[in-house]
Structure formats: C-alpha cells, structure tokens
C-alpha cells in the first residue's frame, strides 16, 4: 500500500471545512462593507432607514428591500442577504430607492451593490483559494 495515503485523505477531507470557514468569514466582511457604503449614501432624515440597513445569513426580514441572494444554493448556509427597510419606521426604503410620482429617487441600495459587487466576488474567491493553498 502507498505510504501516507491516510494522511493525504485526511488533508483532502479537511479542505471543505477550512474553505467553508474562510469563505463565510470573507462573505461577512464583504457584506458589512456593502452595508457601510449604503449607510453613507442613504438619506439621513430621522435615521430610521439608516438603522434598518444590514445583512443576515439566509433570508431578509419580511418587507425589506433586498439585493437578492448572494451565495451558493448548494449549501443553504452559504447565503447572505443584504437588506434595508422592513420595519414600521423604515417602510419608505422603496420610495427612497426608486422615487414616487411626487418625489425624486434617492438611490442608495443598488448603486452600493453595483459598485462593490466585483470586489466582493473577487475577495471571496481569493479567500477560498488561499484556504485551499494553505491546506
């Protein structure tokens, strides 16, 4: 039998866990960076909308404006949702983002995501590759 095969197998088995942990950490960091940009761009009248911006693993709170699913559906836990609104005080997230017939739009949500999207994907891929290499 080949020497070291058990050690090699255990190293291969450890890769998914390491990669998953590194990926999750980078996803959290990237989601917070996107949220920070949104908080800088959001209109700050009473601050309700500002305080409603956040991210969560899984689905966004009901009624909130969400970027959509960021992550892989193969592993249900590797999905972060970035959101704004969803509370009684911050119901106007959609009005601010898209405007109304009487109010011009003050977009903060999608411009932030579009500006950060490529960097987020690159950072996550870099973290995954680094975790695999350090194996």
Describe this structure in words.
The chain has 135 residues and is an alpha+beta fold. The chain has one domain. The chain is 55% helix and 12% strand. The protein is built from four helices and four strands. Strands 1, 2, 3 and 4 form a four-stranded antiparallel beta sheet that branches. Helix 1 packs antiparallel against helix 4 (109-134). The two termini are 24 Å apart. The model has no long low-confidence stretch (mean pLDDT 84).
Keywords:
135 residues; alpha+beta; elongated
Rg from Cα? 19 Å
pLDDT averaged over residues? 84
Number of domains: 1
Shape: elongated
Could you give the order of the helices and strands?
HHEEEEHH
Count of discrete alpha- or pi-helical segments spanning 4 or more residues = 4
Structural class: alpha+beta
Major beta sheet summary: 4 strands, antiparallel
End-to-end gap? 24 Å
Residue share in β-strands:
5-15%
Low-confidence stretches: none
- Percent of residues in helices: 40-55%
Total beta strands? 4
How would you summarize the topology of this molecule?
Layout lengths: L4 H37 L6 H5 L1 E4 L6 E3 L3 E2 L7 E7 L7 H6 L10 H26 L1
Antiparallel strand pairs: 1-4, 2-4, 3-4
Q: What can be said about this structure in brief?
A:
InterPro entries: HK97-gp10_tail (IPR010064). This is HK97 gp10 family phage protein. The protein is of the alpha+beta class and 135 residues long.
């Amino acid at each position: 039998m080949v020497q070291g095969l058990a050690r090699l197998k255990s190293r291969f088995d450890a890769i998914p866990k390491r990669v998953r942990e590194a990926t999750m950490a980078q996803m959290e960091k990237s989601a917070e960076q996107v949220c920070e940009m949104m908080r800088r761009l959001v209109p700050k009248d009473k601050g309700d909308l500002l305080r409603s911006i956040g991210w969560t693993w899984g689905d966004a709170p009901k009624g909130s404006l969400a970027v959509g699913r960021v992550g892989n559906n193969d592993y249900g836990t590797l999905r972060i949702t970035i959101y704004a609104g969803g509370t009684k005080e911050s119901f106007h997230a959609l009005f601010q983002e898209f405007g109304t017939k009487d109010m011009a739009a003050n977009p903060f949500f999608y411009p932030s995501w579009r500006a950060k999207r490529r960097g987020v994907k690159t950072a996550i891929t870099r973290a995954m590759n680094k975790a695999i290499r350090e194996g």
